[in-house]
Design goal:
The complex is a heterodimer.
Chain A: H1 20-30, H2 41-48, H3 52-64, E1 68-70, E2 77-79, H4 95-110, E3 113-120, E4 123-130, E5 145-147, H5 152-159, H6 163-173, H7 190-200, E6 206-209, E7 216-224, E8 230-239, H8 240-243, H9 245-266
Antiparallel strand pairs in A: 1-2, 3-4, 3-8, 4-5, 6-7, 7-8
Helix pairs in contact in A: 1-3, 2-3, 4-9, 5-7
Chain B: H1 3-17, E1 22-23, H2 24-31, H3 35-47, E2 51-53, E3 59-62, H4 64-75, H5 78-94, E4 98-104, E5 107-114, E6 127-131, H6 136-143, H7 147-159, H8 165-168, H9 170-180, E7 183-185, E8 191-198, E9 201-208, H10 219-239
Antiparallel strand pairs in B: 1-3, 2-3, 4-5, 4-9, 5-6, 7-8, 8-9
Helix pairs in contact in B: 1-3, 2-3, 5-10, 6-9
The chains are: A alpha+beta, B alpha+beta.
Chain lengths: 279, 261
């Protein structure tokens, strides 16, 4: 009968770093990742499990080479300018490039005008479009600013800002100036804008035909970040003879099948902070 | 601190500066160091993800920790987040890539860009673009610095042996930029840059990196619709001066070096 074998647990050999000073310096440098606030020696020592002396020496080395710098107060450290030399060619988050394939697919489905609009200052600006050939009833000139309170498209962007941002916008733009191009009574008073915003917030997608100018109808799809702030809107619009609200509703499931993956993707990125000067 | 830590940072900088993946022998030759020393530095860089092996080879490239840290620096410029929508508007209106350049010491650094909508457009890299006088975008900033700061720049550039007004007529060019309110680089593909003013100086410049100007017409007339966009952004900065804060503005510009270590 075989004798029982006693199995000894294998203790892993202690890891011996051959370059401990360098490891410590790189650990201290890594601690600044994603941190906008300056950091102090004591706090870094605590979070890294190092002595204050070790952290101080690492920071001195990093500061000599520009990888960290003293902050304005002189008491703390911030990530340094030298870090900018580490690499190149990152892909910038580019809303237009990300949305372009979705715009093309929506156009292929509907054969109508498709616009991508963002907030620039206190305005909505269309930054990309796919247009059908021939005359159109819906115009959203690329690059031209439209105030955030004017037109349903603008107000869909405005509606997804925080209440305090909307208050700040309405205070900065008072008194509201009506659009000259076509009637938009809800955009002419702050009360009208607020009432419209309440309605827009009730629904995920806005299907709309201006009762005061009934030649066009359109669907507006807000693209939001994880906090519900707006990156952009996509608008699909066309003449009501062929693209009226019933036609839009019939196409809505297929349009949403195209838009939803983009919406999910954009939730991963923070939307820009709104800023306006009142002009 | 030990010289091994400094050497490791130098190895990191060499990898960053190289357009190609670098091997141990090559780095050792560049730094005049023993291969074993470089190997130990690379081991530390691998462990901390500042470097990775290029496609399982024995050559090295920058790792994800370097990219994450770089993004941390970009995010510290509050002007970046605020300017991006305006860059997108300009990129859409011109079809060409619009980018934001800020001063960092006496250097210009591109910290944001919005890709143009034209089929063929430039894709300028983010990061340092050289001393302020070298690039047409950062010259638009240099032109609008105070006279005392411009003099300080020229003194620094002379010390660094960078081409200055003595051999390039730079001062006259800067005066032209101040008078026109823009820098039109007609030597290349007719690119131009507009200064972003705050108070009496430029805190940044917005460059349009493509051939959007007709050389037969006055640049200022053609640029006016885009200058209006930049003025709208300047009004936002005037209302929220915290946007103008440069995270390295408190440092003596002469102490900032962005050349290879």
């Amino acid at each position: 009968m075989p004798r029982p074998v006693s199995i000894q647990p294998i203790t892993p050999a202690p890891v011996v770093y051959r370059n401990q000073a360098a490891q410590r310096v790189l650990a201290v440098l890594s601690a600044f990742e994603g941190s906008s606030a300056p950091r102090g020696v004591s706090e870094l020592a605590r979070s890294l499990g190092m002595s204050k002396n070790m952290v101080h020496r690492a920071l001195t080395t990093l500061a000599e080479e520009g990888f960290v710098a003293r902050d304005r107060t002189g008491q703390f450290y911030q990530v340094g300018y030298r870090v900018l030399t580490l690499g190149a060619g990152e892909s910038e988050f580019d809303i237009a490039s990300l949305c372009r394939p979705t715009l093309l697919r929506l156009h292929a489905l509907t054969q109508e005008s498709v616009y991508l609009s963002i907030i620039v200052g206190g305005n909505r600006v269309t930054i990309d479009e796919v247009l059908p050939p021939g005359p159109r009833v819906l115009h959203s000139s690329r690059g031209a600013p439209v105030p955030l309170h004017s037109t349903k498209m603008s107000r869909v962007l405005l509606a997804h800002l925080a209440d305090e941002d909307i208050d700040a916008y309405l205070a900065a733009t008072a008194p509201l100036r009506p659009l000259q191009r076509f009637p938009d009574p809800q955009g002419e008073t702050a009360a009208g804008v607020r009432a419209d915003i309440r309605g827009i917030r009730q629904t995920e997608n806005v299907l709309w035909r201006n009762p005061h100018m009934s030649s066009a109808a359109y669907a507006i799809f807000p693209l939001l970040d994880a906090g519900g702030r707006p990156h952009a809107i996509i608008t699909v619009g066309g003449p009501r003879e062929r693209f009226d609200l019933d036609a839009i509703e019939a196409l809505l499931p297929r349009m949403l099948a195209i838009v939803t993956p983009l919406r999910d993707h954009l939730r991963l990125f923070p939307a820009p902070t709104p800023s306006w000067s009142g002009a | 601190m030990s010289s091994s830590a400094k050497r490791t940072l130098k190895v990191l900088s060499r990898i960053a500066a190289s357009a190609q993946p670098l091997g141990v022998t090559e780095i050792a030759r560049q730094l005049d160091a023993a291969p074993g020393t470089v190997f130990r530095a690379l081991d530390a860089l691998l462990r901390s993800e500042f470097a990775i092996k290029y496609q399982q080879s024995s050559r090295y490239v920058l790792g994800p920790a370097a990219a994450r840290l770089r993004q941390t620096v970009f995010a510290q410029f509050p002007i970046r987040d605020s300017a991006l929508p305006y860059l997108r508007q300009l990129a859409s209106a011109t079809g060409e890539t619009a980018s934001l350049i800020v001063p960092l010491g006496w250097y210009g650094v591109r910290i944001a860009s919005a890709r143009g909508s034209n089929e063929v457009t430039s894709a300028p890299q983010l990061g340092p673009i050289g001393p302020l006088s070298r690039h047409y975008g950062s010259r638009a900033i240099l032109a609008l610095l105070s006279e005392a700061k411009r003099d300080a720049y020229f003194a620094w550039a002379a010390m660094k042996r960078i081409q200055t007004e003595k051999d390039s007529g730079l001062r006259q060019e800067l005066a032209r930029i101040r008078a026109a309110g823009l820098n039109h680089d007609s030597s290349g593909p007719a690119a131009f840059a507009l200064p972003v003013r705050h108070g009496d100086e430029a805190i940044a410049a917005i460059a349009i990196e493509g051939p959007v100007l007709d050389r037969r017409k006055r640049a200022a007339d053609q640029v006016e619709p885009w200058a209006a966009v930049v003025r709208a952004f300047e009004r936002v900065v005037a209302q929220r001066p915290e946007i103008a804060v440069n995270p390295f503005g408190h440092l003596d510009p002469g102490t900032i070096a962005l050349e290879q270590m």
